[in-house]
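Please check this.
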Amino acid sequence: MRPFLKWAGNKYKIVEDIKRLLPVGNRLIEPFVGSGAVFLNADYKSYLLADINEDLINLYRTLGDYGKDFISFTKTFFTPENNTKERYMELRDVFNTTNDKVLKSALFVYLNRHCYNGLIRYNQKGEFNTPFGRYQKPYFPEEEMQLFYNKLKKTDVELRVSSYEETLKDVFYGDVIYCDPPYIPISKTSNFTQYYQEKFTILDQLKLIQILKDLAKKGIPSVLSNHYNNLIIDHFEDFETLDVRRIISCKSREKVKEILAVIK
């Protein structure tokens, strides 16, 4: 199943590789759930889906609570009148100021599909600030939203706004962890780690790896995604490399090398 959100580093294209490496377990924990590609295509009894981005988790909660009615409401924003820079900026301002969680969740989908490259980016004030994308006819992911809703309703899913440190404190024997953190940038110009209000630093990368290694000693395995980088691979004995096509700019799609590291 394809996620309904556009997402930097979306794992949909390599989800079968990830599933092949994920160990058997009772519950899948994702501290960086993002677009939910792994959740949508995995088969566990239960899930803990967490992310530091409150807007993202509220969107999933709203979709789970209201289903088809919310999907229909969101669709009303996908009109030719709303596909202009001026209207985009107006709706982006509404998103950044409203306290209405249903409206904010619908606008999150609108912004995601109308903004530049689907980039989810915030400034230091916590305001969404990605510019207008100038697409001729942005796609409304009605079927994909319905499939996501169906998966939420058919399985035992906990949605949580939480940092990766807090999420990984709540794991038990029988859990399996999949981590897809903000990647180490492959160049200075591709540093998009300002994903929410806090940057994900090199120290965070190393801290995450250590936490996963400590959990592995307790019998809790994990799989980690990241760019192929000496800083990362030097910490693992068991990893695979993949050539993945990524959007480098609005006109360029190049293959980059990534790793999937197994920690057990």
Confidence is low (pLDDT under 50) at residues 188-195. Residues 248 and 254 are 6 Å apart (CA to CA).
